[in-house]
């Protein structure tokens, strides 16, 4: 991406591992954050506030998302519709 004639202005890191690799790349290529490239992380990494300026992160409530997915799946299995009561 950084070899393109028009380099990206921002990158969205989909997870902590991607974010770490992007940060390593930025450091090794002397890219300023957010001057040269804006970075947004997903996962609400605990170390985001250590940067100056702090990184923007998006928190994903993974436990709640998994719980809701399981409930929806159980509703489908049990044939529960929108207006029905859950039996579990």
TrEMBL record:
<protein>
    <submittedName>
        <fullName>Substrate-binding domain-containing protein</fullName>
    </submittedName>
</protein>
<feature type="domain" description="Transcriptional regulator LacI/GalR-like sensor">
    <location>
        <begin position="5"/>
        <end position="86"/>
    </location>
</feature>
<dbReference type="InterPro" id="IPR028082">
    <property type="entry name" value="Peripla_BP_I"/>
</dbReference>
<keyword id="KW-0238">DNA-binding</keyword>
<keyword id="KW-0805">Transcription regulation</keyword>
<keyword id="KW-0678">Repressor</keyword>
<dbReference type="Pfam" id="PF13377">
    <property type="entry name" value="Peripla_BP_3"/>
</dbReference>
<keyword id="KW-0804">Transcription</keyword>
<dbReference type="InterPro" id="IPR046335">
    <property type="entry name" value="LacI/GalR-like_sensor"/>
</dbReference>
């Amino acid at each position: 991406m950084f070899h393109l004639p028009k380099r990206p202005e921002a990158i969205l890191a989909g997870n902590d591992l991607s974010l770490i690799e992007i940060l390593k790349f930025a450091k090794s290529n002397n890219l300023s954050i957010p001057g040269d490239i804006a970075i947004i992380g997903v996962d609400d990494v605990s170390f985001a506030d250590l940067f100056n300026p702090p990184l923007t992160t998006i928190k994903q409530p993974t436990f709640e998302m998994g719980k809701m997915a399981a409930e929806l799946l159980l509703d489908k299995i049990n044939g529960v519709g929108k207006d029905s009561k859950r039996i579990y």
